Amino acid sequence: MVLNRKKYQNAVLYLCQKLGGEVRGKKKLAKLLYFADFDLYEKRQRSLTGDVYKAFPMGPLPSGLEGITSEMTKKKLIAIQDIKEREDYNATEIYRCIAKPDVSVFDEEEKKMLNRIVIKYGHLNGKQLEELSHAEAPFIGTELRKEIPYELAFYRGTDFSDL
Q1: Distance (Å, rounded) from C-alpha 34 to C-alpha 154?
Q2: Would you say the C-alpha torsion 104, 109, 113, 116 has a positive or negative sign?
Q3: What CATH number was assigned to the domain covering residues 5-154?
Q4: C-alpha separations of 160 from 30, 87, 100, 144, 163 in Å
């Protein structure tokens, strides 16, 4: 797979924009991207971002996330702010969009998939998304810290009737 920087950046912007201008937490952003990529792969045999996901204790993590979001910060597309919400917890990274997404980079199916992700998962927090991803074949079938094969998406049996 090849990382599609343009689609990746615009997917992050799109999710931020649709979720009230921000995504609260790196875990939440990582899982929303996971669902977007693996749902699209299950339906169309291709991912949206082209990123490689690894199975970590808190669920699937896209390998390119740090690089893409730091690039986006430098280009003033997003702002990342750390907010200490609770004692004894790591600060929550808040991803705020500064720029508007360029939706012309997506085909109709990709736009529908991103909208579906926002509606289906956007209201959930990182912990809830972690639990959902842990219950899926791609995570269950992958050794910890190893790459999650996209082909495992076919063992999910996702209902796409809402598309």
Answers
A1: 14
A2: positive
A3: 1.10.10
A4: 21, 40, 28, 28, 6
Residue 117 exposed, middle or buried by CB count within 10 Å (0-12, 13-18, 19+): buried
Structure tokens at 105: 């980079």
Q: Which of 24, 16, 125 is nearest to 78 (CA)?
A: 16
Contact 15, 32 (CB under 8 A): yes
Closest CA to 59 of 142, 123, 3, 116: 142
3-state secondary structure of 83: strand
Describe the strand order of the beta sheet including 78-83 as a list of residue ranges. 22-24, 92-97, 78-83
Polymer length in residues for the chain: 163
pLDDT at 89 over 80: no
pLDDT surpassing 80 at residue 142: yes
Q: What is the pLDDT of residue 141?
A: 97
pLDDT per position as a tens digit, 2-53:
999 999 999 999 999 999 999 999 999 999 999 999 999 999 999 999 999 9
